[in-house]
């Protein structure tokens, strides 16, 4: 039963100690959220009605997976629970009244885990001559993704495999990082006869704390020999990791207790990245602001270069069938000892698996297309497509998104109800709002209010101070441009 608990805990809480909700649609599409728009398309900041924006703090968290679940609960319902039990521990008995019951899925689907978090620090934006937007920002971000885990590695499927019965494990990979980004924003808006065109860029200097990746590159045959040993045929395995803090943790094989050192905040690599965007807005004399807006952007275009206290290992691949005795591996007291034992076992040399003391990893790069239409004054329907892509062999990856988000918006209040299709699989409905200078929301409302099998959640909030173009606003217009002639051909 202990193994089942471990599987469930890992499925839910890997990397959850750090705190990039995925796209935060309730904030990104709102015209009065200042620098928050820069993370979906930096050109939107240039065409914002705001003349000044001071972002004080923001937090976003997104986690979703299909490995395990917690029975019949919601995020809000969890606060009423005082205990956690696994489904196997119940053995057919009713669960205690105040207990959360965890289980893992027994399905033929490949498994995945996606986590991302962002802590947005102070950021500032202001307009120059009403045409140029200039800004400074800082974010602390984290991301962790494992994808295409073969269904046979699910708890039940693996447990049901008989000894001496070989089965195929197909390739899968994962990557994770915690990093800080500090950057500058610039945007330019150009007036045209019936609207505007805008261009924007965020240039970022990234400093990486903990980072790593792993992957199985080819199909391998896996055989359970006994409860404590397995046989693996010709796996090509790669992994990389920063060792600064991990080297401070170990395991006492005598007392069976972990050895925990004092972690430190050190940067092990750096890199540059950019968000680039363009947009057009078409105005209509019958309505304030724009009638419609369209944009395209490239997000997080860059690579992490990890060069300090870093290791890259590979099996190269393993030249022979490998038998692993877990009892022998349990005697390793540190990660370094464990790596050397596996290298000796697989390659006949404790140092053979170490190929480099640096590695590269792609950031969560994506192409995004946005559209927004104002039907009547203050009532909009926006849409967003986000398609991730990679710049390296291993990449931090965000979820693919297709979303439609109706919203009511004015200077002091907004309400958005996004409908989101993630990774072309699951549909979620969200709810977000803005009251003055405070924004909050979720792209997965059901995880908060509906009791069901809980597999993850999503939420975000932000606090800012900002101002519109005051002379025009006080004269009666919330936007900086006056009404134009009726909608016609767009003038370039």
Secondary-structure map:
Elements: H1 2-13, H2 25-28, H3 43-46, E1 50-65, E2 68-73, E3 83-86, H4 87-90, E4 99-104, E5 111-120, E6 123-128, E7 132-149, H5 155-159, E8 167-169, E9 172-192, E10 195-216, E11 220-226, E12 229-233, E13 237-242, E14 249-252, E15 257-260, E16 269-284, E17 287-306, E18 310-314, E19 322-325, H6 326-329, H7 335-347, E20 354-356, E21 359-362, E22 366-376, E23 379-388, E24 401-409, E25 413-416, E26 419-422, E27 426-429, E28 431-435, E29 438-442, H8 446-449, E30 452-454, E31 456-468, H9 470-474
Parallel strand pairs: 3-4
Antiparallel strand pairs: 1-5, 1-6, 1-31, 2-4, 2-30, 5-7, 6-7, 7-9, 8-11, 9-10, 10-13, 10-16, 11-12, 12-19, 13-18, 14-15, 16-17, 17-21, 17-22, 18-20, 22-23, 23-24, 24-25, 24-26, 25-28, 26-27, 28-29, 29-31
What this model shows, in words?
This protein has one domain (2-474). Helices cover 11% and strands 52% of the residues. It has helices spanning 2-13, 25-28, 43-46, 87-90, 155-159, 326-329, 335-347, 446-449, 470-474, and strands at 50-65, 68-73, 83-86, 99-104, 111-120, 123-128, 132-149, 167-169, 172-192, 195-216, 220-226, 229-233, 237-242, 249-252, 257-260, 269-284, 287-306, 310-314, 322-325, 354-356, 359-362, 366-376, 379-388, 401-409, 413-416, 419-422, 426-429, 431-435, 438-442, 452-454, 456-468. The strands form 4 sheets. It has a 21-stranded antiparallel β-sheet that branches. Strands 3-4-2-30 form a 4-stranded mixed β-sheet. Strands 8-11-12-19 form a 4-stranded antiparallel β-sheet. A hairpin with a 2-residue loop joins strand 9 (172-192) and strand 10. The chain is globular, with a radius of gyration of 25 Å. The model is unreliable at 1-21 and 473-492 (pLDDT under 50).
């Amino acid at each position: 039963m202990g193994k089942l608990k471990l599987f469930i805990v890992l499925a839910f809480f890997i990397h959850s100690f750090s705190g990039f909700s995925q796209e935060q649609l309730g904030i990104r599409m709102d015209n009065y959220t200042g620098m928050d728009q820069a993370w979906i398309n930096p050109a939107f900041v240039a065409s914002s009605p705001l003349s000044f924006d001071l972002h004080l703090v923001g937090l976003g968290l997104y986690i979703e997976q299909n490995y395990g679940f917690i029975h019949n609960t919601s995020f809000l319902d969890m606060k009423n629970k005082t205990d956690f039990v696994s489904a196997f521990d119940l053995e057919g008995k009713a669960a205690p009244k105040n207990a959360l019951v965890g289980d893992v899925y027994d399905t033929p689907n490949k498994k995945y885990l996606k986590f991302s978090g962002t802590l947005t620090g102070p950021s500032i934006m202001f307009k120059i001559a009403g045409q140029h937007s200039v800004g400074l920002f800082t974010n602390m971000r984290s991301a962790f993704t494992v994808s295409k885990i073969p269904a046979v590695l699910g708890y039940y499927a693996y447990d049901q495999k008989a000894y001496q019965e070989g089965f195929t494990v197909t390739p899968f990979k994962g990557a994770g990082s915690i990093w800080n980004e500090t950057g500058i924003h610039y945007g330019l808006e150009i007036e045209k006869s019936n609207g505007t065109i805008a261009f924007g860029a965020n240039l970022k200097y990234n400093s990486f704390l903990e980072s790593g990746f792993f992957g199985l590159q080819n199909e391998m045959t896996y055989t359970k020999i006994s409860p404590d040993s397995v046989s693996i045929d010709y796996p090509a395995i790669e992994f990389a990791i920063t060792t600064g803090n991990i080297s401070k943790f170990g395991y006492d094989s005598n007392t069976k207790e972990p050895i925990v050192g004092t972690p430190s905040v050190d940067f092990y690599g750096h890199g540059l990245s950019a968000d680039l965007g363009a947009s057009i807005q078409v105005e209509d004399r019958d309505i304030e602001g724009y009638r419609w807006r369209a944009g395209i952007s490239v997000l997080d275009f860059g690579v992490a270069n990890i060069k300090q206290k870093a290791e890259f290992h590979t099996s190269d691949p393993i030249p022979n069938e490998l038998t692993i005795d877990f009892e022998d591996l349990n005697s390793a007291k540190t990660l370094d000892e464990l790596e050397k034992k596996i290298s000796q076992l697989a390659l006949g040399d404790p140092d053979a698996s170490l190929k480099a003391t640096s590695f590269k990893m792609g950031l969560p790069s994506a192409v995004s297309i946005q559209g927004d239409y104002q039907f009547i004054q203050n009532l909009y329907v926006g849409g967003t497509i986000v398609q991730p892509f990679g710049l390296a062999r291993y990449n931090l990856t965000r979820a693919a998104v297709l979303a439609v988000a109706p919203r009511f918006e004015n200077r002091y209040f907004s309400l958005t109800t996004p409908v989101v299709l993630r990774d072309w699989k699951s549909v979620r409905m969200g709810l977000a709002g803005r009251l003055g200078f405070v924004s909050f929301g979720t792209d997965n409302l059901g995880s908060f209010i509906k009791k069901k099998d809980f597999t993850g959640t999503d939420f975000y909030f932000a606090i800012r101070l900002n101002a519109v173009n005051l002379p025009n606003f006080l004269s009666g217009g919330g936007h900086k441009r006056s009404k134009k002639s009726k909608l016609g051909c767009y003038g370039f």
